[in-house]
Amino acid sequence: MNVFPERVTDDKGSAKIEGGITLRDYFATAAMQAILTGNDGRYNNRWELVDDAYKVADAMIEARDQ
């Protein structure tokens, strides 16, 4: 599932929805912002931050599917 898709019209006037970002990426972005807001200097490695953000995103998707 993508969020923020856009409506695109081709040369013949046919419209379709495409683009956007995945729901997982959207959730990870929100999680990363929240993590950084409360960051007490714990994240010296940006990859740890990214990994944790995607763990939160995956948990959100799992909870959403229940």
- Number of strand segments: 4
Class by SSE composition: alpha+beta
Based on CA atoms alone, the radius of gyration comes out at: 16 Å
SSE sequence, one letter per element: EEEEHH
Helix content: 40-55%
Please summarize the sheet with the most strands: 2 strands, antiparallel
**Which stretches are low in confidence, meaning pLDDT under 50 for 5 or more residues running?**
none
Please work out how many helical segments DSSP would assign: 2
Distance, first to last CA? 16 Å
Strand order of the largest sheet: 1-4
Question: Can you tell me the overall shape?
Answer: elongated
Beta-sheet strand percentage?
15-25%
Average pLDDT confidence is 87
Would you kindly provide a written description of the structure presented here, covering whatever features stand out?
With 66 residues, this protein is α+β, with helices and mostly antiparallel strands. The protein has two helices and four strands. A two-stranded antiparallel sheet has the order 1-4. The protein has a two-stranded antiparallel sheet with strand order 2-3. The chain is elongated.
